[in-house]
Predict the 3D structure of the following.
Amino acid sequence: MTNAPDFQPMGHRFRGFLPVVVDVETGGFNPQSDALLQVAAVLLRMDSEGRLYRHYTVARHVQPFEGANMDPKSLEVNGINPFHPLRIAHPEKDALATVFRSIREEMKLNACKRAILVGHNAGFDLSFINQGAERAGLKRNPFHPFSSLDTVTLSAMAFGQTVLARAVQAAGMKWDNSEAHSAVYDAEKTADLFCHVLNRWGPILQPSVDTHMDSG
């Protein structure tokens, strides 16, 4: 993937972290027992003026791992039929490896040492990503194991809203309820919201005084 003419590496913008916006759709709320069914990751870029924008999305349907629980109520909300004959789903290991590979490529281009997950209720998404990677035996999980950037907090600060749909609308962007609870749609809307809030706050082009990567 070639860089846009105004591409500015993000190595100093977030202390060496590459923000990656993630949304997962699952068979429940427990990452240890419930199936990971969809994963989408939105890669961001920063232009020469320090403004963030959505670059591209990598997504996969995921086959439930053996013995996975799938709560009918969760499937009703996300509209997923895990065993639909036309659903092109990949084993958990292959799906996550594809996403991780794209993230590592962007980390290199942006001179970043690690990725940090951005999400709406980010802890939920991170827990399923981490558990899926552990279950699949993937050793090169690019994400920080516990730190994340949460658009719930950003939306509460900027708009007084915590629900994704309301925050997106408060930011002046369109929201389509018929598309919601798709990992790709929710991830891309979360990415647009994240970029909007950070760009509204203003660019930070200069390196911080301390760029040392510690545990936080």
User: Anything to note?
Assistant: Residues 207-213 have pLDDT under 50 and may be disordered. The beta strands are 17-26, 36-46, 52-62, 89-90, 114-119, 143-150.
